[in-house]
Fold:
Amino acid sequence: MNAPRDLPRKLRVATTSLSGCFGCHMSFLDIDERLLELAHLVEFDRSPITDIKHCGPCDIGLVEGGVCNAENVHVLHELRKNCKVLVALGACAVGGGLPAQRNNLDVAKCLTQIYRTESGEVAVPNDPELPLLLDKVYPINEIVRVDYFLPGCPPSGDTIWKFLTDLLTGRTPRIEHPLLKFD
Amino acid sequence: MFALETAAHPETLRRIAIDPVTRVEGHGKVTLLLDQDNKIHQVRLHIVEFRGFEAFIEGRPYWEVPVTVQRLCGICPVSHHLAAVKAMDLIAGYGPLTPTAEKLRRLMHYGQIMQSHAVHFFHLASPDILLGFDSDFTRRNIVGVALDHPEIAKQGVLLRKYGQEVIRHTAGKRVHGTGAVPGGMNKALSRAERDEMAKDIDQMIAWSLGAVHMVKQLHETNPAFYNVFGDFRSNMMGLVRPDGALDFYHGALRAVDADGQTIFDQVDYATYQEVLQEDIKPWSYMKFPHIKSLGAENGWYKVGPLGRIQAASYLSTPLAEAERQAMMALGGGKPVHGTLMYHWARLIEVVHAAEMIRDLLNDPDILGLDLMAEKGPRRHEAVGVIEAPRGTLFHHYRVDDDDLVTYCNLIVSTTNNNQAMNEAVRTVARQYLDGKEITEGLLNHIECAIRAYDPCLSCATHALGKMPMTVELIDADGQMLHSLSRG
Ligand code: SF4
Structure:
């Protein structure tokens, strides 16, 4: 599977991690040497691996992680607004993933249990700098329209590479069975 | 009361936020409060997410935990995998591991140290060092490094790949594998896999030594800057063997003060709650641990590369130990504390990890087939501790007769560094930003200080801990109004 050469212009790619563990970003880096090749084909916009803090117009947006607080909602909207194609990358973005196990718990109870003193006094961090928590962890398609869903925890580097090179060459992305994993 | 932590009159000040902090793993932000002369009154590193992992792990079967806890962090999943499985070895009643199982786990762990340190140094931090702290921010990333320094970028990518392949061969998957099970390992290493790793290891050792030398040379070009940037004194902690050598997989706790004098040594990590304590502050979800006997004000410490290689007496492999000696010579017999020294120390650890991998691959036990320990009586409670890439990592569980977890407490490496990182950003703010017109490049100095610690804010937001803790209510003049504790 070779990367396309001589694209008319570099495509712009934004990536973000919402309520994810960064494993999907690590898996992206698992394309190994192909990362150096990719550097000739795409430019990165907002991403945890660049210092661009807000998204400009982009071709592709990759979203890792579900939505657990108000800030995640803002970031997700920012990406949706700016990206022609938005991709839910990995189990958390697709369905909430492991963090969504907190959906069975009452978040207020959870907070008071963790930030409580022996005498029962509650000291939950509440500074205005801390974004509001949502009652549940949501998959990103419950907040915005999503163009592609890439399952896996995380999807492998090879899966991400196949997907991206398909998109970069204008093919409809097709992930065949051996690369399509849900674990 | 820590200087610059809380401004007396925040309402009169201007706020600047670095949000999100980039080229670190996970989510954090920094806020600065300044007056009209740009004098800085307050600097805080906030951890803005809450996930409550410990709460939802309760009620799950214990044997699931070593696999699920990895989802705390995709950068150091192996560390969580192994810390949890070390606790579950005891809970499930297993005796000492077989030599093969222990060596396979160590191999996996050193692969992890290598890949995590490589991704941090080359993919995340090197743009600051190679392109400049205040270089064009649109190019200040791994792609910029790849274009300007293709050979360095290539070596970084391949060092990381090697570490990831070691993990894949031992854990089954590069990210979130399943190799370790309570009592041992679930897969032996084949000769073909061993040979594939062995063929490249000398190259990896050479490249990692080259990276240490590169940082050393950079240091020589501007020692004043590298020694002084974010330099502050603090205690340090790490795991050591009985003879004082650093051990990443298993050992006892040692803490030393800023001059290298012992605070405690050979402390059984199962008793961590007797030596450590945590504080909470209203402006961060991440707690603030400290050494109990010294109190919150004086008891905080550094973990991770710079802390542990100086807390330990030596490194057990020759090339890495020689480099450690060379770095410590700068302090003339005393530990060094400059924030940027973290990078140097981290790369020394990559050399150490590579040497350990070579020795393990040459060890005949590594191809053994005896993977499971003997089973003895079950236990209800256990602690597993490991030196993760970012520092000492604690996992503590209780499990009931139905195999379900009833209690889970995690202190992740980055939480151990919470106060130290806050001190680092305050020191840098004082050194480079105070009274100046704030520019993007200056703000990046703050991020460079955070990056040096290689914080994993992802781990830190998942795991909040249930340690004994104190809450202090302090007024604007630093007077304690009220204090409560749980313990
Ligand atoms: S899908 Fe898995 S690897 Fe990706 S962010 Fe979620 S937990 Fe991490």
